From TrEMBL:
It comes from Desulfurobacterium atlanticum. The keyword Transferase applies. Belongs to the glycosyltransferase 2 family. PANTHER family: GALACTOFURANOSYLTRANSFERASE GLFT2 (PTHR43179:SF12), RHAMNOSYLTRANSFERASE WBBL (PTHR43179). One of its GO terms (molecular function) is glycosyltransferase activity. Keywords: Glycosyltransferase, Transferase. This is Glycosyltransferase, GT2 family. Residues 11-57, 79-210 form the Glycosyltransferase 2-like domain.
C-alpha cells in the first residue's frame, strides 16, 4: 500500500500481443519529466512472448507460472530515466484474454486499492511525450476534476478524432462522440465529455464514487461508458499541450461502395470482434439516448444497411445475418456473453 504525503501517479497499461510496442510505451513512461511512482502492466494472456521480453528488458525478474487459472501479480522495480528514483512495476498476468475492458477493469481496481492518487490509463501502443504528465498535473487543481486528458495524435502529429469530444445522445448511430473544434486548441484546457483510454488521467476520488470500468463490454465503447460516469461526478479536461502519440494500426479490409458511402467488409475470421461494437453501442443508446424515436430509427436503419451489405458483398451470409441480429438484440436486452460471437460464427452446427 502506498504510504506517501506526495500525490502519487500510476500508469495502467493494458497489453495483448504487441510486446515491442509495449516496451516503447514503458520507455516513454520512464522518461516523464514528472516521474511516475508506479506502472501496472496488465498482460491479457499474450501469446507472443511478452513476459519473456519484459524479463529480458529487466522490467520483471521472474516469469509467471504456466497454466494460470486466475490472475497472477508480482511487484518489481525499475529506475526512471530522469532522476534514477524507483518506479514500482506491478506486473499482472491474466489467465485469459479479458479484452481491453477487462484489462482496464483489472488495472484500475488494483491500482486504486494500492492507494495511488491518479491513474494514467493507456494502451500498449501509446507513447506519451516526455512532458505529457507534467503538463496534465499543472491543471489538476481546477475545481471538481474527475479526469484530465492528453491530446491524442497519430505518428504524423495529426489530431485523432473522435477520441476526444462531446457526447451525442440524440442519435448514437450517427456517432456517439462528436469531435471538438481544433480551433480551440490554443486554450489552456477544454471541457470535454469523453477521452478514450489512451492518455486519460483519472482522479481516485472519482473512482471512489463511480467504481471501475465495465469489464462486461470486453472491447469497444468501454471508455465511453466510463466517461459518462466520470462526467456525472466532475469535469473532464483536455490539456492540448500534453501530447500522447497513438500508434494504432489503420483499419485493414476491403471497402465497397454502398449507398453512396464506403463500406468496410470485414473478413469472416475477424468478424467476431464486430459483435462487441454493435452490442455495446446499442446498449449505450438504449440506456442514455435522449430520443427513443431517433434511437430506434437509427437502429433499424443501421441494421438494414448491414443486412443489405451482407447480401450484396459477403460470404457466409446466413451466419453473418444471424450474428449481427444477435448483437443488436443482446444490446437491447443487456445480455453480456462474451463467448457468444465466436460460438455464433465458428461453432459447427
Amino acid at each position: 500500500m502506498i504510504e506517501n504525503n506526495k500525490e502519487t501517479v500510476c500508469a495502467v497499461v493494458v497489453t495483448y500481443n504487441r510486446k515491442d510496442l509495449l516496451i516503447e510505451c514503458l520507455e516513454a513512461l520512464r522518461k516523464q519529466t514528472r516521474p511516475l511512482e508506479g506502472i501496472y502492466i496488465i498482460d491479457n494472456a499474450s501469446t507472443d512472448g511478452t513476459p519473456e521480453l519484459l524479463k529480458e528488458k529487466s522490467y520483471i525478474k521472474e516469469l509467471p507460472p504456466e497454466n494460470l487459472t486466475e490472475p497472477w501479480e508480482k511487484e518489481f522495480e525499475v529506475k526512471n530515466l530522469v532522476d534514477d528514483k524507483p518506479i514500482k512495476i506491478h506486473y499482472v498476468r491474466m489467465h485469459e484474454n479479458t479484452g481491453g475492458a477487462g484489462g482496464f477493469y483489472e488495472g484500475v481496481k488494483r491500482a486504486y486499492k494500492e492507494g495511488y492518487d491518479w491513474l494514467w490509463l493507456m494502451d500498449d501502443d501509446a507513447e506519451p511525450k516526455k512532458d505529457a504528465l507534467e503538463k496534465l498535473l499543472k491543471v489538476r487543481k481546477h475545481y471538481c476534476v474527475s479526469a484530465l486528458a492528453s491530446l491524442k495524435v497519430n505518428i504524423n502529429g495529426k489530431v485523432i478524432h473522435p477520441h476526444r469530444g462531446y457526447f451525442n445522445f440524440k442519435n448514437i448511430f450517427n456517432g456517439i462522440v462528436k469531435p471538438f473544434d481544433e480551433a480551440t486548441l490554443g486554450r489552456r484546457y477544454l471541457k470535454i465529455d469523453h477521452a478514450s483510454f489512451v492518455g486519460i488521467l483519472v482522479n481516485r476520488e472519482a473512482i471512489k464514487k463511480i467504481g471501475y470500468p465495465k469489464k462486461e463490454f470486453f472491447i469497444h465503447y468501454d471508455d465511453v461508458e466510463y466517461c459518462i460516469r466520470l462526467r456525472n461526478v466532475g469535469e473532464i479536461l483536455l490539456i492540448p499541450k500534453s501530447i500522447i502519440i497513438h500508434k494504432e494500426a489503420a483499419k485493414k479490409g476491403i471497402y465497397k461502395r454502398f449507398l453512396w458511402k464506403k463500406s468496410l467488409r470485414v473478413p469472416y475470421e475477424k468478424l467476431w470482434l464486430s459483435y462487441y461494437s454493435v452490442r455495446n453501442l446499442t446498449w449505450l443508446g438504449k440506456k442514455y439516448g435522449t430520443s427513443k424515436i431517433h434511437f430506434y430509427y437509427g437502429l433499424v436503419k443501421n441494421y438494414l444497411r448491414k443486412i443489405i451489405g451482407i447480401i450484396l458483398f459477403d460470404d457466409n451470409k446466413f451466419k453473418r445475418i444471424k450474428f449481427f441480429t444477435n448483437a443488436y438484440l443482446d444490446g437491447l436486452k443487456g445480455h453480456f456473453d462474451n463467448e457468444k460471437p465466436k460460438k455464433l460464427l465458428y461453432k459447427e452446427d
